Amino acid sequence: LALARRAAPLVKSSLRFVPSSLCHIVTGEPLVVATLTGKTLVLDFMTKNCAPCMAAVPKVQRLHQDHPDIVVLAIVDGPPDQRRDAAKAVRDRGGRYPILSDSGGWSAALGVYGHPSYVVVAPDGFVLQPFGIRTEPTHLLDDVLATLKPNGSQR
């Protein structure tokens, strides 16, 4: 169950986000990760069978829509049919942000073992702490915006 309290202030960790150079959107289109360099990322780790994950989709969509300078990516795991079902469920709830397969092991690399979890990556590639947090997406966005300057650079 997602917590409705504010997360601790986000600060840089020593963990640097270095995904593989190419990953796949669940529908099969390639995403060149290098195109994400220099941008603030919010990674939404989710599954279709996670009710809080699905309930958060409209809020995550608002984050994606209202802040085009922040890249929102849903990361889904499981077998291919479950990933496709999750993508369909997100779309059915109004989510229009990219939905990526976690076949590259992003969850394990970032210490995410529960859903929903949100990881914020600063433009320089460093993960902001706390990461793998379970928090309500609107509060996460408030923390991200408070931590980053308007141009996306770290305070």
Instruction: Quote the beta fraction.
Output: 25-35%
Between the first and last Cα atoms, what is the distance in angstroms?
A: 31 Å
Order of strands in the sheet with most strands: 1-8-7-4-5-6
Large-scale geometry: globular
Number of helices: 4
Radius of gyration: 14 Å
Helix content bin = 25-40%
Count the E strands: 8
Spans with pLDDT under 50 lasting ≥5 residues?
A: 1-7, 151-155
Helix-strand makeup class:
alpha/beta
| Helix/strand order, N-terminal first | EEEEHEHEHEEH
The residue-averaged pLDDT reads 76
How is the main sheet built? 6 strands, mixed
Describe this structure in words.
Helices cover 29% and strands 27% of the residues. It is of the alpha/beta class and 155 residues long. Residues 1-7 and 151-155 have low confidence and may be disordered.
